[in-house]
Amino acid sequence: MSGLCQTSIDLSPEGAEVYEKQHVHQVYEQIASHFSSTRYKPWPVVERFLQGLPIGSVGLDVGCGNGKYLTVNPNIFIIASDRSENLVNIASQHQPHASLVADNLCLPHPSSCFAFAISIAVVHHLSTRTRRVQAIAAILETLRPRLASEQDQPEHERTGGRALIYVWALEQKNSRRGWDKTDEQDVMVPWVMKSRTDDRSGEISTTFNRYYHLYRQGELEKDIVDAGGGIVESGYEKDNWWAIAGRCG
Fold first, then answer.
1. Cis bond before residue 154 (omega within 30° of 0)
2. Are 28 and 35 in contact (CB under 8 A)?
3. Cα separation, 75 vs 55, whole angstroms
């Protein structure tokens, strides 16, 4: 089984922030270039979501990484953000879209403005449920609200903005990681980088451990509802839980 069981976390807001800085933010700053080289193929549900947006739609990619989703649909405009300055520098190459460094717990965007948002494999890096729900709420806050006349309509028929959120699943027993329902949800996942020695006679391996909260079935939907969202559609794709949500109110 790949992944190290995570030890104790200081659950205070200050403790969680320090923990994530050490085990998430600093790691991605160091591995950004190598990480980017392995991230180039869009996931099918994300591609479908972006390709299905109306021409001219303006939205967000929260936790954009290297910006691989910015080029999926040339007929929309995306403002991308990430905590990693090194990843944002890579994402900024995908013009004409905009890229900036931002904390997804406190997004620097106006509320109620955007037609869509995506947050792919990001929320699971937050180390407490309070912070994960807060991050989802921040994303939902940016979306256009539904119209008052649509209050009694099913969620999928409403015209407000939509967010697509992806998180790693606990239930992935058929993957190389081998996690399943009885395993720990809070884990460290190693990222191994290899580099040449100074004399180029061999290789050195450096391991960076990243924190993940592995979501159980139904947990993402509950977090979205508690963040003030309504579920439009949800499912499972290749070791990930995903959900499309709109704002409730």
1. no
2. yes
3. 5
d(CA 220, CA 147): 25
Helix axes of 219-226 and 129-141: crossing angle, nearest 10 degrees: 60
Nearest residue to 248 via CA among 120, 153, 110, 114: 153
User: Which residues, at least 6 apart from 124, have a Cβ–Cβ distance to it below 8 Å?
Assistant: 132, 167, 168, 212, 213, 214, 215
Q: Write phi, then psi, for 23 (nearest 5 degrees).
A: -105, 0
DSSP state of 100: E
Q: pLDDT value at position 218?
A: 98
Cα torsion angle, 103, 169, 189, 18, sign: positive
* N residues, the chain: 249
Residue 132, number of CB atoms within 10 A of its CB? 24
Of 112, 61, 64, nearest to 85 by C-alpha is 64
Calpha distance 100→108 (Å, rounded) = 10
**Residues in the chain, pLDDT under 70:** 1-10, 147-158, 196-202, 249
Nearest to 91 by CA among 104, 78, 109: 78
Q: How far apart are CA 158 and CA 238, in angstroms?
A: 29
Q: What is the pLDDT of residues 73-127, one digit of tens each?
A: 999 999 999 999 999 999 999 999 999 999 999 999 999 999 999 999 999 999 9
